[in-house]
Design a protein that fits this description.
Number of helices: 10
Structural class: alpha/beta
Helix content: 25-40%
Distance between the termini: 40 Å
Bound molecules: ligand LCYJ2WEX, manganese (II) ion
Mean pLDDT: 94
Largest sheet: 9 strands, mixed
Radius of gyration: 20 Å
Order of helices and strands: EHEEHHEEHEHEEHHEHHH
Low-confidence stretches: 355-365
């Protein structure tokens, strides 16, 4: 062909390369990154080292990262460090605080690259970005799942007035192999593994809460960052393994109020490690019965029209936590205060977000 097209052999720039940070909480070495290298190497990592700050975390060569241990958290936040959990994966939210990027992907260090039924490796980061850059449909359920996906669309009867969708704030990925079961379920079904790959992304309808798991999660930090506080857990706290749940409930109430969407489904990661169910039972047991009162609280939480920014919504929620949940346990009074401290720390490091209510509805902007 005369003058045939020429193709440079330059690799395409990884999507959102300079707009996304990968946040990893860890008490281990990070050899797991070797498997993720093709997907993560172009991105900046924020490693939050939990536990003993004098321990050295081994990070494979070639990654661009910042590492923060407890000494760094205390140095950067001063007294406000009290809102960041110690000896619990909830510490990861410090990474959201110090990031300067528009998007966050957080992943646990026992999560590996999964394969789809065809045997192809799943680029979890790429799928999360697709989920975040495409709108959500929380106001009317599309029975053919994600209408913005290649080869799908809105089905007959779907109102055209709603087909623009709303900006997506959170993309909640799932897990093959070890599913995110609570301790009682883990104890009852120790050998159960999740082998079911469901090729779907769903928007969680407005007004519906869900159990958000933090091990394979991405979000638009600019839209919803101040709400992604992983509640006080671990050392000195009467509850554990409910940090991500707490964040998910607060976040969803605020997304519903501000008109943002939350998706769940693809991408899958391979969760390799079943943590000890007996240890988990000790951590979770308060949460297992407290949640029977927490869920109705969030289901009935009302945010007024004065709540025009995420911070204002979050501070209003913390007031309601203090007023209505303190009777369950004094822990919730401490948690309500920690929620305020988190917003203060967020505003100190990132500005008050007064203009965040003027965010465009264009998920690209
Ligand atoms: O004290 C700690 C314990 C762990 N980490 C880091 O946090 C993640 C998760 O740790 P792990 O995989 O051991 O914990 P899981 O029982 O699988 O639970 C996690 O998965 C979700 C719930 O199922 C939720 O994300 C976690 O609770 C790893 O990166 C550890 O290194 C920590 O920082 N501090
Ligand atoms: Mn795990």
């Amino acid at each position: 062909m005369a003058g045939g097209a020429t193709f440079s052999d330059a690799k395409p720039t990884p999507i959102l390369k300079d707009e996304l940070d990968i946040v990893i909480p860890t008490i281990r070495n990070l050899d797991f990154l070797e498997m993720w290298r093709p997907y993560f190497e172009p991105y900046h990592l924020i490693i939050v080292q939990d536990g003993d700050p004098s321990r050295t975390v081994r990070v494979p060569d070639g990654f661009d990262y910042e590492l923060f241990n407890r000494n760094d958290i205390n140095r950067i936040l001063g007294p406000k460090a009290s809102c960041i959990s110690f000896k619990d994966s909830a510490c990861r939210c410090f990474g959201y605080l110090v990031s300067k990027k528009k998007y966050i992907f957080t992943i646990d260090d026992d999560c590996f690259v999964a394969k789809d039924p065809s045997g192809k490796e799943i680029n979890a980061l790429e799928q999360h970005v697709k989920n975040l850059l495409n709108p959500s449909t929380p106001l009317f359920f599309n029975t053919l799942y994600d209408p913005y996906r290649e080869g799908a669309d809105f089905v007959r009867g779907y109102p055209f007035s709603l087909r623009e969708g709303v900006p997506t704030a959170v993309s909640h990925g799932l897990w093959l192999n070890i599913p995110d079961y609570d301790a009682p379920t883990q104890l009852a079904k120790p050998l159960e593994r999740n082998t079911r790959f469901v090729d779907a992304v769903l928007t969680i309808p407005k007004g519906t809460l869900f159990p958000m798991c933090g091990m394979n999660l991405a979000f638009n930090r600019q839209l919803i960052g101040p709400a992604m506080y992983f509640g006080l857990m671990g050392d000195g706290q009467p509850i554990g393994r409910y940090d991500d749940m707490w964040a998910g409930w607060c976040m969803k109430v605020i997304c519903d109020h501000l008109g943002y969407g939350v998706k769940t489904g693809l991408p899958y990661i391979w969760h390799s490690k079943a943590s000890n169910p007996f240890v988990n039972l000790k951590k979770e047991y308060n949460g297992i019965f407290w949640q029977e009162e927490l869920i109705p609280f969030f289901q009935s939480a009302v945010l007024t029209k004065e709540c025009t920014t995420v911070q204002k919504c979050y501070l209003e929620l913390s007031k309601q936590v203090k007023a209505k949940l303190g009777k369950i346990d004094p822990y919730f009074l401490k948690l309500a205060d920690a929620m305020v401290t988190w917003v203060e720390a967020w505003d100190e490091l990132n500005g008050s977000g007064e203009n965040s209510s003027n965010l465009t509805n264009d998920p690209e902007k």
